[in-house]
């Protein structure tokens, strides 16, 4: 049945049919989250780039709608972002209601930046004045637009390959139609994300974050024209096959919620690839300076079908597996522990090895390792497991390892063990999850 195929992620968005890559045009508009995506409606592999479209009330349950932007005489529809034009600066609004405006790359010859708008979140009209930015080089694409309140202007940041150098260009506009070059910065590749967020939730300490498609990022300040980095390039996610992540514009509660293209390979399925779970991004102050943390959005709690809370315990090598009684396909595991004498705390989730190496303070998924410091002597780990892999989090989100792996449907066992000595397990929860498609 539709959405029940063996390799269909059950709480990860994927299109009904055909290929997807990047999330596009992520915006909250008229009470709905909109997720557009790079889509091939006619094939299993990349091609015929079209903007697919889905909507959700909670970012967890998605309904796919007809494609929003079809290829035209200017080319296929490559990636970009969206905004709500609250003040109707563009004049695209209707009946006193603000329009949704989406930005995309028409990847023809020349390759140019364009826009389209909608007054109902269902029908899209391409702007008759397209392109809004002419070709700078053949490799220019992926416009992301944000509102800059202090200068009361729109800012468009996009990727431009200049003589082999990867750059981001910033343009500004009063009305989304006329754009003026403002600045450029080297060292970022494809699909920018750019937002301002408070450090440790303190609204008086806001910083801007600029990232490229890999999620590597720099934190700094922005005066409306120039981004001035205050950190070196930092790794965002530390896993594999997570790319081109974008955050929702106009998020009503001010959170920065990101979805990435999760390159799950779904051979034999009528669709290919999928999206990550929605991730809540925050800036926290660490001893090394401000850093991004990634945590699963709280809306995912709606998927919990049955919860197991396991008693706190000292777990030593050879002890009975505390997860022995549980069988689950879709699962969320949360644990808090002090490693104590243990060298390793090992979760086996349906044959995926999620390991905390206490000696090295490293976290790993199937051997793919990343630094994961203890925080106040404790480690807190969250693991989401779907048919197509796991997303694992440690160190309160400082360490995020997405890892697509096609799991064996029949293996529903979970294990927890320690090596080298006892660890103090302060809390351990396993939530069996339901499908988001039902
Ligand atoms: C990133 C990307 C973008 C481009 C799109 C085309 O995955 O290469 O730069 O707009 O995919 O599908």
TrEMBL record:
Keywords, ordered alphabetically: Glycosidase, Hydrolase, Signal
Keyword Acyltransferase: no
Sequence ranges assigned to domain Glycosyl hydrolase family 32 N-terminal in this UniProt record: 12-289
GO molecular-function terms, A-Z: hydrolase activity
Boundaries of every Glycosyl hydrolase family 32 C-terminal domain copy: 299-431
Family: Belongs to the glycosyl hydrolase 32 family.
The protein, known as: Glycoside hydrolase family 32 protein
Origin species: Luteolibacter soli
Record lineage: Bacteria, Pseudomonadati, Verrucomicrobiota, Verrucomicrobiia, Verrucomicrobiales
Covered residues, full protein: 271 to 708 of 710
